[in-house]
Amino acid sequence: MNKILLLVAIAALTFTAASAQSEFRIGFKGGVNFASISGDFTDDYDGRTSFHIGGLVEIPISEKFAIQPELLYSSQGAKSEYDDSFGDSIVIGKEKLKLDYINIPIMAKYYIIDGLSVEAGPQFGVLISAQNEYEVSGFRGDESGDDDVKDLYKTLDISFGFGGSYRLTNGLFFSARYVIGISDVTNEDDFEGDFGPFDIEAFKQRNSVIQLSAGFSF
Question: Taking every annotated instance into account, which residue ranges of this chain make up the domain Outer membrane protein beta-barrel (predicted)?
């Protein structure tokens, strides 16, 4: 809870600072996520396509530099497919891990030319939902369901993003960003309980997301 309050305070201070500036831009954006999870026990994971949406403020520092804090809802995670043999029977399964975050990227922007910028900076995420959807077909018939797995994942996710953006004179902009996880997203205590006697203190998994966005700022 303290971590969540700290993130909210950071966001509030950042947006308050923005409102005190005489020249800044306010905008909104949305787009597609190509998300995945890397690390231990992720060999069978494939990417998951989803979305992000939210708002932003661009605070000018100089003619070429600006700071751009954002507040985004971002749906991330991964999916996997498998088939296992049990004697003469084969079990086929599909799983989709849905990790939904409220993310606060804080990007430093450098304008190469008018309208075209590159950006990089940290991102702080708060996990608000974690669901594992599954479908299994085998000797016991077909099964499907949706499990709440939020206890298996940490509330705070720290990442680093970099990319670029192009803004038209009418305010419409397009951007591409790659966000790579720095912190481990797994809650090791809960995973250890599920796996019983196995020592998985080194169990690490991290988010990664490619984001393609379109938006408008004024």
Answer: 20-186
Query: pLDDT tens digits for 55-96?
Result: 999 999 999 999 999 999 999 999 998 777 655 667 788 999
Q: What global pTM score does this model have? A: 0.83
Count the domains in the chain: 1
pLDDT at site 33? 98
DSSP 150: G
CATH number at residue 162: 2.40.160.20
Predicted confidence (pLDDT) per residue in 91-127, tens digit: 788 999 999 999 999 999 999 999 999 999 999 999 9
φ and ψ at 212, to 5 degrees? -115, 125
CB 166 within 8 A of CB 149: no
Phi, psi of 187 (to 5 degrees): -90, 95
Owning domain of residue 85? 2-217
Q: Please give the Cα distance from 48 to 210 (Å, whole number).
A: 11
DSSP β-ladder status, 205-217 and 25-39: antiparallel
Could you tell me which residues come within 8 angstroms of residue 82 by beta carbon, excluding any fewer than 6 positions away? 44, 92, 93, 95
CA–CA gap between residue 183 and residue 39 (Å, rounded): 11
pLDDT of residue 56: 98
